[in-house]
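Structural prep section.
Before we set up the soaks we want a predicted structure of the protein with nickel (II) ion in place, mainly to decide which crystallisation condition to try first. Input record follows.
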Amino acid sequence: MTERTSISLSKLASTTLVESKPNHTISNMEATVEYSEREKEVKQFEDSKAGVKGLVDSGITKIPRIFIHPPDDFKVSPSFEVPLIDLQGIDGGRERRKEIVEGITGAAETWGFFKIINHGIPINILEEILQGVRRFHEQPHEYKKGWYSKDFSRPAIYYSNGDLKASTPTDWRDSFTCRFKQNHENFDALPHVCREEIEEFFKRMSSVRDMISEVLSEALGLRSDYLTSIGCLKSASILGHYYPICPEPDLTIGATKHSDMSFLTLLLQDNQGGLQVDHQNHWVNVPPVKGALVVNMGDFMQIISNDKFKSVEHRVLATRATEPRISVATFFGAANNDLQFGPIKELLSDENPPINRDTTFGEYVTYYRSKDKRVYGNSALPHLKINK
Ligand code: OGA
Ligand code: NI
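Run finished without errors. Recording the tokens verbatim:
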């Protein structure tokens, strides 16, 4: 890390000493001053290009105030468990397949989340991508800062907090992301430290996608190739997240509660835990299972399934352990942000009228990002409801 970076980061860290008072006791004037201070701190953080990891490396023992999150009122429920689906025998016979399709249908309808095992990806491939992502984030700042960008049209970038702004608390997480279109993959633009791992992982995730795509089509009562035929899973964004060790994990969050905007997400988490999903207004832990992947429905899957499948909010706690947490999320979506999607016509009837209106991914993301004071962490789905 350069001297300049560490100086600006330690200045940022010292701002936590300024106590922030509860909102109702501060005057407009004070609030404005506090806001502009926060803006400065956010800018300083962004300009460092060093991410949250840079802060940790600078030796802070208190988190800067831009990372402080308000507590939420959900309780953690120990009695619920995200369904685990064993894919063994999925192509082995009608009875077994029917069983798997039923399991996934129930999970996608009631949880929006499930874990899969026996998906055909060897454990060493999963371990290698986790190590590759870790290697990327743990490169010297001098190398890594060249990748820091918020230009999501670039083939590969790294950043901290895609939607960084003074009005919402910052997450304790850095991310690397790259994007692929089916049949137009270009791996040359990837960083050397994890290129081979990402290439292999992308191919493996694509085969899991094909399997899940068939099952979800069948779960909707459609031909197995239906979701493939409408092109809604043709592009993939791979996000390699790095959740640095946090000195005050109770004050912040690794990933703010959100639903995924994708059609389908496949998630690989390391062995630390910290992922929680909202189930009946309770947080339910999604503990890691060796070799398993987490599958979840995104907002667009909820839209096209006419709310049969649920895109459920989830979050990640800040890392309490002595090791950073690594996860790799693969988001599948359409090849083009201008393609319109709405409720699948075959699913609609007088009894099942369309719930959401058609939209494009581009329009949806623009709306999501522009919500000025968006209800903190909430999804943009209600915006599309036909009968609000
Ligand atoms: C995401 C996400 C969870 C995790 O990337 O959208 O929810 O465990 N990630 O990192
Ligand atoms: Ni998510």
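Observations: The chain has a mean pLDDT of 91.
Flagged for discussion at group meeting.
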